[in-house]
Design brief:
By secondary structure, this protein is mostly helical. The protein has a domain at 18-48. It has helices spanning 2-13, 19-47. The relative contact order is 0.07.
Length: 48
């Protein structure tokens, strides 16, 4: 849902995102992946 609205905003602006915005999105995505991986590793440690 948020991705769709973000895509519509980009289309309305009709200009490529700045490098800072791209880096921010990449950093947030990497952080989410790291958090998910950490949660999975913690769960596996608790299960074993």
């Amino acid at each position: 849902m948020s991705q769709r609205s973000r895509r519509l905003k980009v289309i309305k602006n009709a200009r490529p995102p700045s490098a800072g915005v791209v880096l921010q999105h990449a950093a947030s995505a990497a952080l989410a992946v790291a958090i998910i991986a950490g949660m999975h590793s913690i769960h596996s440690l608790l299960n074993h």
